[in-house]
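May I ask you for just one protein sequence along with its backbone structure tokens in two labelled lines?

_____
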Amino acid sequence: MFAPRLRRLAVILSFLAAVAAVAGGVWAYGYAGALRQLQSRGQSDLALAGDRLTGELQQFRSLAVLMADHPTVTGLLAGTVDPATSRALLLEVADKTGSLDVIVVDQTGRERAAASGTPPDPHAGRPYYERAMDGALGVYHQLSDRYGRRTFLFAAPVFSEDGPPSGAVLVLADVEEVEAVWRGDRPTVFFTDELGVIFVSNRSELVFRSRTGDMRAAGQSAEYPTGRIMPFVHYEARLWQGMDLWRVDAGRYVPERALHLELDLPVIGLVGEALLDVAPARQLALLQATVTAALCLAFGALLFLATERRRTLAEANQRLEARVAQRTAELSDLNADLLREVAERTAAEARLKKAQADLVQAGKLSALGQMSAGISHELNQPLMAIRSFAENAEVFLAKGKQDVAAQNLTRISDLARRMGRIIRNLRAFARQESEALSDVDITAVVDVVLEMASARLTQSTVTVIWDRPSGPVMVRGGEVRLQQVILNLVTNAVDAMEETGEKRLEIGVSSEGAKVFVTVRDTGPGIDEPEKIFDPFYSTKTVGSGDGMGLGLSISYGLVQSFGGNIRGRNHPDGGAVFTVELAGVAGKGGA
């Protein structure tokens, strides 16, 4: 009695350990996938922030170059224009361009005129001045005691008629004015110089922080007053699957757990860095792991109960057979006892039937779990498109392009309606139902699929050869479901060609009698097991390669079957895989 209990306890503990391992694997896989999506979006945001900062500073650079050729500036250095006239011009230029100051410096480094009228600074020997006197454009940034703020300086040489520079024009930009337009935006972005000091950021608490903590080396593009640089706030960094994860303690406006990204900006001599909050990614991974564990535990509980009931029935049946054997030997004397035993056997059979019915219900619950995974697979692509269009609309709204943003919002609305149709169709498929068939132009279906997959095809550098018929080719089916089938074949082909040199996707439509055939061929490695390609959960994608769940072709097979058609997959003699979708044509309504 004690040994069977120990065995059951060991089985339960082993099952719980397996569930924990599976849930942990799902968490790690989901977290990695969410981080990669976050990294891709964050790199775009960081590039946009870097372009914005570079663009803001480029106007001051251009101003310095233009002012270096102004007759008043050259006349001032040549002694033909008085300083008062020059200062009036510089003041006007500074006011109109938003420059902090515009200064004209002669060959000795002495200021000849300045828009601000503040006490002059010596410039001889400074890196930007020496570079300008060498005939190049000097770039410099500093915390200026003269203006009491952070400045970005461009020094353009003023060439004399003889050739060598006779001086330089300095244009100073107020970094705080540049920051004002995007302070507080997400994500957290900061720009560090060659000394590792944060000079520009949309979080003011990070300015003048240094992660290196070593300020002994003198920089060639910046200088700071002694004691102003502070160590970077407490952080810990670690690499996880090739991604740089930080744990930061920098206040409420900087994420505690963040994905760190870097982008070199050589034009302005800074390095752009971003901290992306990974809390949503962790929550999504935790939710996926929790759902997986809950499903496993529910299935395990049902299986355990069914096993226990069967064991109990088996023990009862053994006891019953023993009793029957005993009563058979005493049949003449124990007829009344025999009738009671027959009644007990009948009750045991009833319990056995109930246990069988419970097992059937458990099978239904398992099928429902498989369909929930299928719904997730089918909605993934529209959700990604909606998120992309929403982010684009936000950028266009920020740029004032209302019409383009409205187009993106219209596409989001169309995709939402399409998702509703997808859910309705998948629900019908789960119930072994189908909507009424109609006449559908398969040419238009392929066009729509190629439009939806255009970004993915471009990103993967796939050459599309679409042998488009001259007119519509009508088939019997459902438009949305046909789009799902063709789109799944196209995306599978792109995934198959990920590691191949020549990436070519060929799509054709042909007809033979009352049948219409749609062929999709790729130049990938082909199919290892063609006979299993339409089995549920069969996939050729390796773990960690993407969203391969092994349901796409199985669902596509069911959808085509619901139209009265057929789908086949095979290896092409010249390499790669080719899938053929056979559909019922509509007589007298177009042809290939």
About this structure: The longest strand covers residues 149-159. Residues 437-584 form a domain with the Heat Shock Protein 90 fold (CATH 3.30.565.10). The chain has a mean pLDDT of 81. The radius of gyration is 37 Å.
